[in-house]
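so my prof wants the structure for this chain in the tokens format not the other one, which i didnt know existed until like an hour ago. anyway here's the sequence
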Amino acid sequence: MQSKIVLASKSKIRKKILDINNIQNVVEPSNIDEDIVKLSLLKEKASPEIISKNLAELKANKVSLKKPNEIVLGADSVIDLNNELISKPSSRKEAMTILKKLNGKTHYLISSVCISKNGSMIWNYSDKATLTMKNFSENDLKNYLSKIPDEALYAYNVYQIEGEGKNLFSNIDGDKDTIMGLPIKIIKQYLNELK
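here's what i got, hopefully its the right format
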């Protein structure tokens, strides 16, 4: 397996997943403006999955240019509700709007990963989980949001599946690590093949 990788992400949960799986890593956030990229791709009618893949690749390639010969991992997760892209909330009001949209419906959570070396993608992968949210009253949703600290709310797609978020769903079909933002099993498989 590759001895050390560079994680092109500020995500604490992605770092934690790598650490738990004994993958040595250093964090080097890409700091790309995701909103500009999303807007541009949405104008081109790109699907949520294509947007997720593009963002993962952009992040990995940008950091990879600064880290010659190192293996850089970029990742991105989005919610796909009937082919509508739902991004992370930037306020509690926006989080409430998202939860109301998802309320009682089935959506996909797509996590894309890209590995780059010397500024170019050498591997990528996307995984999709299907989640069905229970039907909640507005008060239930407000109560849920009141339990979520700001840091978690703005870092995830309005729910932390490993925390309070698991109580929002009647059905979850997919890999837990994918839902948390890093399909680690397939990443480990690829890293094991790298010489």
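also thought this was worth mentioning. The chain has a mean pLDDT of 91.
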